[in-house]
Amino acid sequence: MMNKTICVVGLGYIGLPTASILGTKGYRVVGVDASPDVVETINRGEIHFFEPDLDILVRSAVHSGNLAAVSEPQAADIFIIAVPTPLDDRDKSPDLSYVEAATRSIAPHVKAGDLVLIESTIPVGTTTEVVLPILTRESADKAAGVRLAHCPERVLPGRILVELVDNDRIVGGIDEESAAAAAAFYETFVRGDVYRTNAATAEMAKLAENTFRDVNIALANELSVVCDRHAIDPWEMIKLANRHPRVNILQPGPGVGGHCIAVDPWFIAAGEPNARLIRTAREVNDAKPDWVVEKVRAAAAGMASPVIGCLGLAFKADVDDLRGSPAEIIVRRLKEDAVGDLLVCEPNISRHADLPLTALEDVVARADIVVLLVDHKEFRALRPHDLAGKTVIDTRGAIR
Ligand code: SAJ
After folding, report:
1. Main-chain phi, psi angles of 195, to 5 degrees
2. Active-site residue, 151 included
């Protein structure tokens, strides 16, 4: 197994860590990315986004000669597709164009006996109804003898390298032989258990995992809005409710961001009249940024020329990823509506395209209203007396 060649398509948050772990496990890995900048960066042994310890791993995989980035797929024994599946903003339907293009790009190189693994998150049915037909039409052997499975990734940004190895995996084959081949492959580098099933079950299980989290965060967000009307601290209330042995309420915040939890529930809900709870949870979470903006507006209304200090732009604590971030949505809305003079602090990035950044101590010194949007460690270190005399809107319950 170890001398096998692996072609990983998409060198982003999932593909690059996976490719580099496989490179350090003795596989010969070619990573494919459409962006020439990404290919060059990786071939220098460098990374194009931050993830703890990824730089060391990529450097060692590239310098050992086991990982090389290229712009076009090549022949391999195993193909892993790890490209994004965004939403079409108009109707929240999944945009499968990257998965389709990636499948097309590997198809001419796929031969009988090869293993094709789809790690991208995809709607139910995609493996057999979209990926397999492309391989059947366009691969050298018309997909005869090709093994194909959906093996959804489950890693948490910030802990990707640990979770890639430690988490249990689900492998959903188009047939038993495919599931067995996929399981045998993951077992060479995963310490967690590897469970075999069919492709549709694996597709739905992945969507259900992120939907579970979204629905539960929606409950926390809804409770926090109701608590606010009763002047109850929702974090204290949730901490106490969670002392019940069968209750585990998640944490309220300014909304749900990132490229997974706010997106994947729509893969179930778009066009599905039975997905009422899932759709409502999405709406509850998507409405939370507006609620925060209204809180800030109400606080600013009583001040002559308020300076508003916004702490954080990332989608969650201690990452530099701004994709789908409710914090960024809130800051942009405050700016558009000219609610006050804005100061923005985001310690994990050095610059932002159109929002000037200010150091934390300057924000703390100058702001009349402090809006905590992300519970980065720098902000968690603040104590109430550091912000004495200011109006504090703490959307994460981080300053205590
Ligand atoms: N959030 C809250 N309250 C909470 C937990 C999270 O408001 O109690 C917010 C975060 O601030 C953030 C968003 O939800 O804006 C999502 O953050 P997250 O840390 O829950 O998850 P992601 O998007 O970083 O990663 C998720 C993970 N899925 C699950 O935990 C079920 C990860 O394991 C998946 O691999 C990843 O989605 C993915 O790629 O699908």
Report:
1. -105, 135
2. no
Q: How many domains does the chain have?
A: 2
Nearest CA to ligand 1 atom 10: 316
Give pTM, 2 decimals.
0.95
CA–CA separation, 216 and 277 (whole Å): 11
Q: Say if 212 falls within a structural domain.
A: no
Q: What are phi and psi of 284, to 5 degrees?
A: -60, -50
What is the CA(190)–ligand 1 centre distance, in A? 22
b or e along 196-228 (b: 16 or more beta carbons within 10 Å of the residue's beta carbon)? bbbbbbbbbbbbebbbebbbebbebbbbbeebe
Query: Is residue 260 annotated as part of the catalytic site, yes or no?
Result: yes
Express each pLDDT in 217-256 by its tens digit.
999 999 999 999 999 999 999 999 999 999 999 999 999 9
What residue has token string 């020439």? 36
Spatial distance between the Cα atoms of 163 and 167, rounded to a whole number of angstroms: 5
Asked whether residue 2 carries a pLDDT value surpassing 60, the answer given is no
Q: CA 343 to CA 211: how far, in whole Å?
A: 34
Query: Pocket of ligand 1, candidates 83, 286, 291, 316: which has the most ligand atoms within 8 Å of its Cβ, to mutate?
Result: 316
Report the share of the chain in percent with pLDDT over 70. Answer: 100
Active-site position among 7, 92, 142, 206: 206
- 364 located within any domain: yes
With 0-12 CB in 10 A as exposed, 13-18 as middle and 19+ as buried, what is 387? middle
Sign of CA dihedral 304, 305, 308, 309: negative
Q: Pick left, alpha or beta for residue 257 (phi over 0 → left; psi -120 to 50 → alpha; otherwise beta).
A: beta
> Which CATH number does the domain housing residue 371 bear?
3.40.50.720
The dihedral over CA atoms of 387, 390, 391, 394, expressed in degrees to the nearest 10, equals -20
Select from 155, 213, 286 the residue to mutate for testing ligand 1; criterion: most ligand atoms less than 8 Å from CB: 213
Residue 218 maps to a domain: no
Domain that holds residue 95: 5-204
Say whether both 128 and 256 belong to one domain. no
Residue 35 in tokens? 């962006």
